[in-house]
Amino acid sequence: MRDRISSIIVQELEIEDDELTSTATFEDEYDADSLTLLAVVARFERELGIVIPSDHIGRLTSLDKVFEVVNEFSGTAPVV
């Protein structure tokens, strides 16, 4: 699932696979805005069945943080 999550993020940020690092901040390094993060969350729900409450979207600041939040709300074994 980790690869699928990364793939969704790469597609929504419109970057190359090798540009995504675990600690780079989406806003500062990739110019992501709140609409981009909403698109990511919508795809997680639609494609992976993972529902992230809207009040937690602000926590999605880097790939590491995304994995942390997904682990919290996936209801399955950790993706990390």
Q: Architecture in CATH?
A: Orthogonal Bundle
Rg calculated over all Cα atoms: 11 Å
Percentage beta strand: under 5%
Oligomer: single chain
CATH superfamily: ACP-like
Pfam families: PP-binding
InterPro entries: ACP-like_sf, PP-bd_ACP
Organism: Amycolatopsis coloradensis
Protein name: Carrier domain-containing protein
Describe the structure.
This is Carrier domain-containing protein. Residues 1-74 form the Carrier domain. The structure is a single chain. This protein has 80 residues and is mostly helical. The protein has one domain: Orthogonal Bundle (Non-ribosomal Peptide Synthetase Peptidyl Carrier Protein, Chain A), CATH 1.10.1200. The chain is 55% helix and 0% strand. The protein is built from 4 helices and no strands. It has helices spanning 2-13, 26-30, 34-48, 63-74. It is globular and about 30 Å long.
Short description:
The chain is 55% helix and 0% strand. The protein contains 4 helices and no strands.
Keywords:
80 residues, mainly alpha, ACP-like_sf, Carrier domain-containing protein, 4 helices, globular, PP-bd_ACP, Non-ribosomal Peptide Synthetase Peptidyl Carrier Protein, Chain A
Topology:
Elements (H helix, E strand, L loop, with lengths): L1 H12 L12 H5 L3 H15 L14 H12 L6
Helix pairs in contact: 1-3
